[in-house]
Amino acid sequence: MTTFEYDVAIVGAGTAGCYAGATISDAGYDVVIVERKDEEEAGHIACGDALKGADKFPKSIPKSEIESSFTNTDVDHGLFDIPRENATLDIPVPGELAVIDRWEYGRQIIDGAERAGTEFHYDTVVQDVLQDDTGRVYGLKAIKQGEPRTYEADVVLDGAGALSILQDKADFEGTTFDTNVRYSQFSSAYREVIEVDEPVEWSDALVIKPTKRSAGYLWYFPRTPTEINVGLGFQMNEEPMQLVEDLREDISQRPELKNATVKDKLGAALPTRRPYDSAVAPGFMAIGDAAAHVNPISGGGIAGAAYAGQYAGEKAIEAIEEDDVSEENLWEYNERVMDHYGARYAALDVYNIFATAYDLDDLLGLLAAMPAEKLSDALYSGSANVGLGLKLQVLIKSFGHWDTLKNLYDTKKLADRLLDHYETYPSSPEGFADWQRKRDRIMDDIYAETGAEAKY
Questions:
Q1: How many angstroms separate the CA atoms of 409 and 374, rounded?
Q2: Distance, CA of 257 to CA of 182 (rounded, Å)
Q3: 419-428 pLDDT, tens digit each
Q4: For the residues of 158-203, what is the DSSP string, one character each?
Q5: How far apart are the first and last CA of the chain?
Q6: Is residue 204 left, alpha or beta, with left meaning phi > 0 and alpha meaning psi from -120 to 50?
Q7: Residue 291: how many CB atoms within 10 A of its CB?
Q8: Rounded to two decimals, what is the model's pTM?
Q9: In this structure, how many other beta carbons lie within 10 angstroms of the beta carbon of residue 152?
Q10: What is the largest CA-CA distance in the chain?
Q11: Alpha helix (H) residue ranges in 242-301
Q12: Distance between CA atoms of 349 and 275, rounded to whole angstroms?
């Protein structure tokens, strides 16, 4: 067995892992990223390719080093097709938006981390964590082409993605680390990159539509006017959908995609839940998808993962310099995530919970009556204010769905209350249990209001 020693060991060469690696390496520390894929395949990840916040990236791998992977920067709005209502909602998207070539982007962030000094060990599959008698994580067990390997490190960062094996193997008893994780909080997705002969008319938009059940969604995101990322996803706790067949059926109904050539295909799981309440344990931090740092409605996770990598990297540096990798000393990482986007994502997840309790036709009828600009505000901020005039407009257009509208309005007030509570996230583990109890009481009110089954 070969043993390696590093200051920090990171699992996964995705966005969070690469930004963490670059942050820590740039400060002069020895970092390894352990990646199960080979060097050529690394960076090839199933993704919708839409990047919100394209103008804001951590300085460790700046936008200038990844910008060539931005294949479509003309997208500035979303089109939500509602065939049952014969309606299409045109939803503005605030901030800079881009559609990217995800594999090329993956290569570029790996290059950026390597330039900063991060080592990469490819073809290496992590099988377990190393933990001492106190519960501190101090390394990993892995295998590379049949050869057992051990990685020892002061800090381990889990960037292994949704439903990470590291979290199955580690013993988090007695820590704050969030173990309230189940399949109902995740979606299964499949996507293809297709090439068409003629430019599509909607090359400046992200096109989204519901599937035959409320648990599913389809997307058409134009990388270029003729190269489209098309995909389908469904909530894992629902009856499985025939992903490939359902997607091909929908593509066949779009004349502009006739005779499309499939260039790439890939599937994955992604979080559609609130961020982990706590993503730290002694010697250990979870980052990106491994801590559910994803907008639970849109599925967008690139920018959040990049900042999670930066925040965890900066905290790891401080912990090593202070010779203190305790949960309490790593806690600031949780605070920074919650302050930046964690609270907002938790509030957005309330609307996912709301949707599970209603018939699809009722939801789509109500959605078609909503003002697009307010939907945009809610989608990206977790809340939206609606004046009297718009309330009357929605009331008139939503005739036949008034009970659902009232419940949505009441749910919104609870989502706002939850958002306010997240702004009181504790500054240390000491206040964590009390904060959770108060949050769970708000969640009980949300379940009672919506009639939805408990998600957590």
A1: 13
A2: 37
A3: 999 999 999 9
A4: E---TT-HHHHHS--TTS-------GGGEEEEEEEEEE-SS--TTT
A5: 40
A6: alpha
A7: 32
A8: 0.90
A9: 14
A10: 71
A11: 243-252
A12: 10
